[in-house]
Amino acid sequence: MSTETRPPLPTTGRVTSRVRGEVAEKLQQRLATYAFNPAEVPQLGENRHVELEIGFGNGGALVHRAQLAPQTLHIGAELFLDGLKSCVHQLETQDITAKIVRLWPQDARVLLEQLPADSIDRLLVLHPDPWPKTRHHKRRLVQKEFLDHAQRVLKPEGELLMVTDWADYAHWMLAHTISHCGFVLQSNNPADLATPPADWTKTKYQNKAEQESRHNWYLRFGVQK
Ligand SMILES: C[S@@+](CC[C@H](N)C(=O)[O-])C[C@H]1O[C@@H](n2cnc3c(N)ncnc32)[C@H](O)[C@@H]1O
Fold first, then answer.
1. Which CATH topology does 21-223 take?
2. What is the tens place of the pLDDT at every residue in 73-84?
3. pTM of the full structure
């Protein structure tokens, strides 16, 4: 197989899911309510702030922001069925409609390829899989190709927020994003890197990290067009 036709390396190590059979079929129907077509962004996002969270896990942070800012269009991408099921459950029980939240239940990199240029105000990547072993670094989501797409889809005043509790991945994100030249670090001093944005809520992986004495790095970048 040539490099061009080979599918991209998976960016998550999760292979098994508890969501199977009838439950999985029902989930597909429930997901259809929140289905997102990237070509619809110009209509759906007209005169609105548009945010995209990649790898939202169980959706806790996405739902939190949707409650805080229902006037915003919140798009979430996640490929883990258990996470999608949890997120849909929260949306349904809290009456959050598809006017406010849309879900992309596939690889977010495909979504980034399909999104129109200048369509997203804030792109969030919260606790992406860290792939700590050197031989696995090529599986990390944050790579040059990802940053190329992020720069293209962000609006001229747009922001890329990346959060990790792995110091090594934070250094990787900083090095790759600064050397990319499409972004400018918004943090003026080291304290900024430890300060969450105003609409922050702790995610499942943040809670896990804190139990293991790891703390978050909040990396905010403005885009350069
Ligand atoms: C370590 S978990 C973090 C989940 C959540 N953001 C949190 O902080 O609790 C990373 C998540 O990213 C998802 N993920 C990894 N690669 C992805 C991709 N290419 N597209 C969509 N989701 C992805 C995984 O399925 C997983 O749920």
1. Rossmann fold (3.40.50)
2. 999 999 999 999
3. 0.96
